[in-house]
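Sequence in, structure out.
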Amino acid sequence: MRFGQFHKIDPKYPIFVLCGAIFDEKYYQDKVINKFNELKKKFFGSEDIILHTLEMTRPSKYKDNRFSKLINADFRKEFYKALNEFLEEVNFILVACIIKKSAHLEKYGADALDPYLLSFNNLLDEFIPELPEGEQCKIIAERRDDNLDNQLELAWLNLKINGTENFKGSEIKDRVENLSMTLKSTNEAGLQIADLLANPIGRFVLDIKKTEPGHEIDYSILEKKLRSNGLIILPK
């Protein structure tokens, strides 16, 4: 898919960020989900609430009024303190790709790929080297809409045939069992964690700082979770 979200360039946030969190499956099922649910229940009274950056940063605009608690500075500070402690404690590897939209469009013009698909290809190159030798792993992506989901399905099929810059298609099929897409409403902890991390990574790259220290995710924690290659920022 060409262009896509490149047509929508916010001068205050002119980048696209895609994050992936890599967990050991047993550890994720046994530890991470429970700890994440405990955090949600403690601050919002229910495990069923979906932590979503847009709703958390603009609580007055969205239906779930439980996020209105974040308007209170003391509550917000306590929540982010606990969230940062959670992120520091749990074991995962973070991979992230950032597309500078204007620069990419200027460089590639009509051949500029959609930022999501371009980021997905690059994250796959970061994901595969972290897989345990001899084991197959799964990728879970968030559903968006039928058109975008179909495009990702086609892109995934193409990757399994033609590969990426660093891996042959046969290697991808050997190492990745499947790509599954799930709705945000399924309350998948890993998808929520990945969503929460994208914004602080983007703010770090753009050097946007909160006016109130302690009221956001601490980037220094994420930096320690990043794969050794660090952030992928395109175009290079």
